[in-house]
Amino acid sequence: MSKRILIVDDDPTQRRILEETIKRLGYQTCTASDGEEAIQSLEQSDNNDIAVMLLDLVMPGMSGQEVLERIRHNPSAPPTIVQTANGSIDTAIDAMRSGAVDFVIKPVSPERLEVSLKNALKIDSLQGEITRIKRKVSGTMTFDDMIIRCEEMTRVASIGKRAAVSNIPVLVEGESGVGKELIARAIQGESDRAGGPFITVNCGAIPENLVESILFGHEKGSFTGAVDKRKGKFLEADGGTLFLDEVGELPLPAQVKLLRALQEGEIDPVGSKRPVKVDIRLISATNRDMIELVKDGKFREDLYYRLNVFPVQVPPLRNRMDEIDELVDYFITCFAAEEGKKIDGIDPEALRLLKAYNWPGNIRQLENTIFRAVVLADDAVLTIDDFPQIAAHVDGFEASVPPAPSPASDVQTHEGPAIIGDESTIPHTIEVSNDASDQVLGIPAMTTGGEIRPLDAIEADMIRLALGKYRGHMTEVAKRLGIGRSTLYRKMREFGLEARLN
Ligand SMILES: Nc1ncnc2c1ncn2[C@@H]1O[C@H](COP(=O)(O)OP(=O)(O)OP(=O)(O)O)[C@@H](O)[C@H]1O
Ligand SMILES: [Mg+2]
């Protein structure tokens, strides 16, 4: 459903002129002839389909200023542009103080109106993003907070909603980066556990000897190194959802313990005298073929059937090309705002390129690609030149700037897109502790010839190591390295480390 501009003006001629101008600018409109009617339209607005309100200040009955006061504390109210008669700047200032985002002086030129509307629309989409982030953090996001514009994903959402009404264990299956975690969060947000904890366990990253303690917790002093009591992921998730990410990676001994906990509905914290009851909703995710893992004896069949009571299959992005337009717009708006850059959109040719590519890293790769483009773009509209890596992999497209040169060999990351690297500087592991859980990866300070290595070579190694470890989760990589995401992208370009996008 496309968004509309609500025009509020008591003068019918003005209303008609504004309607025509705004329609000519390519937006849909609706109108109200006074303050009360405006409030009513906002209240009845279906799914907040009013994106911006253009509000006359001087009207009989409820004035524009009063309308502003009324909607001021309503978080779902659209950004408002007020219109004032020439000379009444004081009223315009009052209106801005009451939350209007801009004011235009009557009669407004189409050019001025267009700029003002564009800015207000950006604020509107950012408001959406802010609400989305808030909901994600508070465990209340739903499928409506996701961009879903194709039949397959609409089906996924309706299956997810169905799963949400019961406490049935769900297995979300799909390639890396398709949105499995977001779907898991939406299932929780649609359920009566909304607002409860959402605890993620990355099953591939737990050291085998700590599985029990991480999942079920331990008492203080229950084993060497247990200096404090640990609650454990199951108890942290009590009343909410336990999300077992990459569940196929769970080591076999841990599978036995998990199965027992699920069968009994209670857990035995390490060193505790009695079992503890927990109330959790279990959602697992995998990008592996679980049946294959079961056949190969790598995953217990009985556990598989316990986790996979309700399967949700998420299609890869290449089968969801109808969603690309909107996802691209969405990411551009978010990242341009985040970076404080003015990016109006993408040109049709570049969009055609993005649609012709097959996106092996799915939405996460698209998100990273748009972020890179926004950070490095010189102009207000993204072009093919902002996507050199993609253009290099799609026949018939060529960027005038070539992708960053690729050094000698590739470092294959754990999974997901490979990261271009140079084997001679691949960091190796040095064990600095007897405790396997404390194993630290080291980066050589010296060359094999015994000389000190340059700082930027070490920095490049560090970034490469983090990229491999966090499998292209760029936000995590930047966070762990203690640098901003844009700095990370700049450095990756500088060091020729950009993710190879095929
Ligand atoms: N429908 C969507 N609308 C908006 N953003 C989305 C959508 N689907 C995924 N994303 C974004 O894409 C990124 C990847 O999504 P998510 O982490 O849920 O995928 P995943 O399948 O769990 O990936 P991985 O296998 O790499 O862990 C996230 O930043 C997420 O916010
Ligand atoms: Mg994930």
Structural account:
With 502 residues, the chain is α/β, with parallel strands linked by helices. The chain has 4 domains: 4-135, Rossmann fold (3-Layer(aba) Sandwich); 143-315, P-loop containing nucleotide triphosphate hydrolases (Rossmann fold), CATH 3.40.50; 319-391, Helicase, Ruva Protein, domain 3 (Orthogonal Bundle), CATH 1.10.8.60; 409-494, Orthogonal Bundle (Arc Repressor Mutant, subunit A). 41% of the residues lie in helices and 14% in strands. The chain is built from 19 helices and 18 strands. Helix 2 packs parallel to helix 3 (64-71) and helix 6 (151-164) crosses helix 7. The chain is globular. The site of magnesium ion (MG) has 3 residues, from helix 7.
SSE map:
Elements: E1 4-8, H1 12-24, E2 28-32, H2 35-44, E3 50-56, H3 64-71, E4 80-84, H4 89-97, E5 102-105, H5 110-138, H6 151-164, E6 170-173, H7 180-190, E7 198-202, H8 211-216, H9 233-236, E8 241-245, H10 252-264, E9 266-267, E10 276-277, E11 281-286, H11 290-295, H12 301-307, E12 310-313, H13 324-339, E13 345-346, H14 348-356, H15 362-376, E14 381-382, H16 388-391, E15 409-411, E16 419-421, E17 428-430, E18 440-442, H17 455-469, H18 474-481, H19 485-494
Parallel strand pairs: 1-2, 1-3, 3-4, 4-5, 6-11, 6-12, 7-8, 8-11, 13-14
Antiparallel strand pairs: 9-10, 15-16, 17-18
Helix pairs in contact: 2-3, 5-13, 6-7, 13-15, 17-18
CATH topology of the largest domain: Rossmann fold
Small molecules bound: adenosine-5'-triphosphate, magnesium ion
CATH superfamily label of the largest domain: P-loop containing nucleotide triphosphate hydrolases
Q: How do the strands of the widest beta sheet line up side by side? A: 2-1-3-4-5
Cα-based radius of gyration, to the nearest Å? 27 Å
Q: Fraction of residues in helices?
A: 40-55%
What is the CATH level 1 assignment of the largest domain? Alpha Beta
Outline the low-pLDDT stretches.
Answer: 406-440
Identify the quaternary structure here.
Answer: single chain
- Total count of strands: 18
Q: What about the largest sheet?
A: 5 strands, parallel
